[in-house]
Amino acid sequence: MRTRAAVAVAAGKPLEIMEVELEGPKKGEVLVEIKATGLCHTDEFTRSGDDPEGIFPAILGHEGAGVVIEVGEGVTSLEVGDHVIPLYTPECRECEYCLHPKTNLCQSIRSTQGQGLLPDGTTRFKMLDGTPIHHYMGCSTFANHTVVPEIALAKIDKNAPFDKVCYIGCGVTTGIGAVINTAKVEIGSRAVVFGLGGIGLNVIQGLRLAGADQIVGVDLNDDKEEMGRHFGMTDFVNPSKIDGDVVAHLVELTKGGADYTFDATGNVKVMRQALECAHKGWGESIIIGVAPAGAEIATRPFQLVTGRVWRGTAFGGAKGRTDVPKIVDWYMQGKIEIDPMITHKLKLEEINHGFELMHEGKSIRAVVEF
Ligand code: NAD
Ligand code: AHE
Ligand code: ZN
């Protein structure tokens, strides 16, 4: 079939809107009509050329929601008409990783996914001149239709609005999951969140859900304060506006250091600050941000010797087919809020403007509706 997509033709170039050819689903695969997709900073990271795994041409996008149009041979858990969210972290429920209680990183299709291919080692997308186009994070939601492995689709409530719950495909789950699954924050904790964007604000609402007493938000952009407070932030710090060292300032503000800190910026210098403002003896710092090729984290080992813990999280530690439908239900029941974070709605043709809004710090989430 033919469908419309925003294609990343080369690193650093704007996405190009074009008609593309899409082959139907093979064994174990599902054809999905994407109804809406969010723009996550990770899409921009790959588009820009910063991603060591970036491959071009590719159809980016990993924060979508849509409807099953066709199922391939052997697909048993989904049928035509089901509403789904594609998962960049699949859940096969069989591999060593899926069977391990301490990780969500299903590895059953990770190697082909990293090469921009479906599990059989081929791509379903090509340009009209026959040039193959790579998949991205196994999702490629910047296309009106996409083919996704069955194990990488979460079946969700049919009443859930696509233009809101698409965000559960990455940002919401990553932020809330980092608090609940990775850090396992206790009631009464003090926390610091660096970066009040599409991920950091969800960390903040996760901290509120978990019953944290103090939630400090840190961002260079003062415009993020209002939204942070709406989602439960108790204190705001703009590092460019304080005298002296930001770490010392945060340690004092949290009365000796935070129980939990989170990096949602992707900046390795900020990651160090996040670790070092965690409390001596027990503070844990969770890296969420994705850093450019070649970037490395550093600290004095003494920071860890004296009891601070450095961890990371992918997709908030969520097992997607199990946890994503539940998070959609939380949204439908009013337990979590998404609507205020969807600051911009765009047509596919306007997708590059969405990345401009991200860079200008004007959007939290821009969502493309098909
Ligand atoms: P975003 O652009 O919406 O937000 C980033 C925020 O960080 C902005 O508010 C910006 O002003 C702030 N910021 C930038 N530099 C800063 C600094 N030095 N100090 C303080 N604040 C600073 O991006 P996002 O979509 O929220 O993504 C955030 C990061 O999380 C990205 O690196 C993204 O790739 C990563 N991410 C990781 C996962 C995962 O599973 N680990 C999932 C989604 C996104
Ligand atoms: N390809 C990059 C790393 C990108 C990365 O860390 N991706 C996160 C999800 S970000 C979603 O917005 C992730 O899930 N990582 C685990 C995995 O297996 O990819 C690089 O540096 O090579
Ligand atoms: Zn993302």
The CATH class of the largest domain is Alpha Beta
CATH topology of the largest domain: Quinone Oxidoreductase, Chain A, domain 1
What distance separates the N and C termini?
A: 17 Å
In total, how many beta strands?
A: 17
- Distinct ligands: nicotinamide-adenine-dinucleotide, ligand AHE, zinc ion
Output mean pLDDT: 98
Quickly count the domains. Answer: 2
Note poorly predicted spans.
none
Radius of gyration: 20 Å
- What is the count of helical runs? 11
Strand content: 15-25%
> What share of residues is helical?
10-25%
Superfamily (CATH H level) name of the largest domain: Medium-chain alcohol dehydrogenases, catalytic domain
Basic shape: globular
Structure explained in plain terms:
The chain has helices spanning 41-48, 110-114, 162-165, 171-183, 200-210, 225-230, 246-253, 268-276, 301-305, 320-332, 351-359, and strands at residues 2-7, 16-22, 29-38, 64-71, 83-86, 125-127, 132-133, 145-149, 153-156, 190-194, 214-218, 235-237, 260-263, 284-287, 309-312, 342-346, 365-369. The protein is of the alpha/beta class and 370 residues long. Helix 4 (171-183) packs across helix 5.
